[in-house]
Amino acid sequence: MARVPVSVVALMLVCLAATLKLQASPMVLQGSLQQGSLLLGTVEKGSRAFYRDRALPVTAGGQFLLGLGRDAPASIELRIVDSEGLQTVQKYEVAKRDYRIQRVNGVPSKTVDPPAADLARIRNDSALVASARREITSKEDFLDGFQLPLDGPITGVYGSQRVYNGVPKSPHYGVDYAAPTGTQVLSPAAGIVRLAHRDLFYSGGTLIVDHGHGLSSSFLHLSDVLVAEGTRVSRGQPIAKVGATGRATGPHLDWRMNWHNERIDPQLVLETLPAQ
């Protein structure tokens, strides 16, 4: 029997090891793979994560966030590059959700069909919100988890198609909690206040808190805002009071969450990142 040179055997072993590493599963995803969800990924320290060729910030402990929007595609791919430059591409199936149709009557007519005089104000409001969400910190407040901002009956859910006064409008991207005017709203997680405005056209009293790595919470229709822009808040701290300002028919809290520009479901965030 012919002998295989040692150098050839060594090369074969190196190639086999590289192949096995490329086929390994260096990533764990925590969260529900469905539209509207937030995923917490964990990779080996020193690895980098990419989604749609966009580099995702990775913590020193190897954790990163990925948000899936209301109409996320049926499958997604994540690319991981380890500390040695070896790449792994993993594909995941995303469950499609069925969204409700919710008819809401009795809202102020000007918030359904705004007069021309209010259009400039609406554009300015949108610019304020967009600017607040662009301020992304590398802080890792999200890792300590989330709690409910208040305990009350849920009257509106994420993703539902809204029909206001008989007129179809954009989907609802938050969770509505009914509560009397003046009820305290608690910060669901620590973060930095990026926007504190008492009267936006559609959302009335509005507060945006940045939890780090592009993850933020928005609180709408408030009667009072208790914190100022730029201040740091802790989980469970009173930050606002429930109201019925903006496009609302009664007092309630509309809690919304974004991962960068993707609007995600706060109820699923509570499942992925429960308070520790």
3D architecture notes:
The chain is mainly β and 276 residues long. The protein has 2 domains: 6-93, Immunoglobulin-like (Sandwich), CATH 2.60.40; 101-272, Glucose Permease (Domain IIA) (Distorted Sandwich). 14% of the residues lie in helices and 39% in strands. It has 3 helices and 20 strands. The protein has helices at 6-22, 119-134, 266-272; strands spanning 27-30, 38-43, 48-51, 54-56, 63-67, 75-81, 87-93, 101-104, 154-156, 161-164, 167-171, 174-178, 184-186, 191-200, 204-212, 215-225, 232-233, 238-242, 252-259, 262-264. A hairpin with a 2-residue loop joins strand 10 and strand 11. The radius of gyration is 23 Å and the shape is globular. The model is unreliable at 6-25 (pLDDT under 50).
